[in-house]
Write a structure and sequence with these properties.
The chain is an alpha/beta fold. The chain has 14 helices and 20 strands.
Length: about 475
């Protein structure tokens, strides 16, 4: 009979997690798939004790954990091994495994004692390391192995492995699964949080699919296959709607904004073209591509190469994008957290961005009149003197889009514009994007969420592992035959 290790019931957190049921048994491997990056990150933060549930119960080995103890309880028993290593790079393997943890203060000088224990631990798991090798000399996979050993030694009973698959070669993946099996034999439970295409049926016991902030499906791996899981994940999500625009008629269009052969250390030869009055939807099929592309457009990640063409003007990109200096406006997520200033009035917020185009704008009445005229169908007259903090979320959203409508950038990049779970908020965002389109402002939507990708019309581009993917290949990965019919 299976022995339950950990169970979370009816978990809710903010606007991302609506109804989460999670159960894992002793010596079990569960593969978890999310349709939304933020939902995944929020649940992981809860699992390792970095966030508290707004609502929900935690059971550990079938015993209810008091609400006030949940955070600390999880922190002590769950370890996350992710792309970013938590090891201290400047010290040795021995020091990372034994000395940099609790309850060893009285033994810091007992080097021989810890050498013996470390060697025994490595032999137990059939690993060969030189104990005094600095961590910064290890490969990515070697760091993963050391983190797992340290978690085991610290008494963690649940390992969460995430964002590893893209960084490992075939041989390393096989070695990782061999190590996971060894930990399973010691009673460890593992939660694998990776895309569906990275599921390993030979080592996985159950699959859980999370959609729209809810636990959608839990299945024994023996009762499902790849095709079935794709159907479950994307059914009622990716389909042809009235507004879906997969193929545009062949026609000559003026390319308003073009990025050619953009490359970073991860992205390779990415080209994006969007004309006046067009919407381009970019679907990032892995998290690294999503984060890298956003970082590039924000100017936070350096470029290796690339050209930018706006109309007939072309120039080689420097080390990074320069935001609106390169004609790129950024609107990220819910405009509630956008660059609006709560203590300032709506008019002040709208003028602030425009002041980068025209000097002395705050002192010239004609600009205020022009703003009111341009936005007369969007915003009521009485709203301009109100402080942003006094507005409703829908009003804030309209102001956030309105400032870019006034500024008229060469392209507006909307990052996950429909992430807000509120239907009214999503409808407002879509309405604003279509308004930008009608005013001939090119729009690029970037998302890793299948629901968002299909929420409005537009041309489609797919990126996977840092490279552009043909639409047909993307459909093979994302869709099941007949789903779009």
């Amino acid at each position: 009979m299976k022995r339950e290790r950990l169970r979370i019931e009816n978990a809710k957190k903010g606007r991302f997690l609506k109804w989460i049921q999670l159960q894992i048994f002793e010596k079990e491997v569960v593969h978890c798939v999310f349709d939304n990056v933020q939902e995944k990150e929020m649940l992981l933060a809860i699992l390792v004790g970095n966030e508290k549930m707004d609502f929900g119960k935690l059971y550990y080995e079938e015993a209810l954990v008091p609400t006030q103890e949940v955070k600390d309880f999880l922190e002590e028993r769950v370890a996350i091994i992710a792309r970013e290593s938590i090891l201290i790079a400047s010290i040795s393997i021995l020091e990372n495994i034994f000395l940099m943890r609790a309850h060893v203060a009285g033994h810091r000088v007992q080097t021989k004692y810890y050498e013996k224990r470390t060697k025994a631990l490595l032999e137990e798991f059939h690993l060969a390391f030189h104990l005094y090798t600095p961590v910064d000399e290890l490969t990515f996979f070697e760091k993963v192995q050391i983190e797992m050993l340290k978690a085991y030694l610290s008494g963690k009973q649940v390992f969460v492995l995430t964002e590893l698959s893209n960084r490992l070669g075939d041989r390393e993946r096989r070695a990782l699964w061999k190590l996971i099996e060894q930990f399973k034999a010691k009673g460890i439970s593992c939660i694998i949080v990776e895309p569906l295409e990275d599921i390993h049926f030979g080592h996985t016991d159950r699959v859980m699919i999370f959609k729209r902030g809810r636990t959608s499906v839990v299945k024994e791996v023996a009762a499902c296959d790849y095709m079935m899981l794709h159907t479950i994940l994307y059914q009622n999500t990716i389909r042809v709607g009235e507004e879906r625009e997969i193929l545009l008629p062949e026609r000559e269009v003026e390319k308003k904004f073009e990025i050619e052969n953009l490359s970073t250390q991860y992205l390779k030869d990415i080209s994006l073209h969007v004309a006046k009055g067009e919407i381009l939807k970019v679907f990032c099929m892995d998290e690294h591509s999503y984060e890298e592309l956003i970082g590039v457009l924000k100017g936070e990640i350096p470029l290796v190469s690339g050209h930018l063409r706006i109309g007939q003007k072309e120039h080689k990109l420097g080390k990074a994008f320069r935001g609106i200096k390169d004609g790129v406006g950024i609107l990220e997520g819910s405009p509630v957290v956008d660059t609006l200033f709560g203590e300032l009035t709506v008019m002040d917020n709208l003028q602030m961005l425009l002041s980068q185009k025209a000097t002395g704008i705050f002192a010239v009445p004609k600009y205020k009149k022009s703003i009111r005229l341009l936005l007369k169908d969007m915003l009521p007259e009485e709203i301009y003197t109100k402080k942003v903090k006094e507005l409703s979320e829908i009003q804030i959203q309209k102001v956030a889009y309105g400032k870019w409508l006034i500024f008229s950038p060469d392209v507006l990049v909307c990052i996950q514009p429909f992430a807000d779970g509120d239907i009214q908020g999503r409808e407002t965002a879509r309405e604003m994007i279509y308004l930008l389109e009608s005013r001939k402002i090119p729009v690029i939507i970037i998302t890793s969420n299948t629901l968002e990708f299909n929420y409005c019309k537009g041309k489609e581009v797919y990126i996977k592992h840092g490279k552009l993917v043909e639409r047909e290949r993307a459909y093979q990965i994302l869709h099941v035959k007949g789903l779009l019919s």
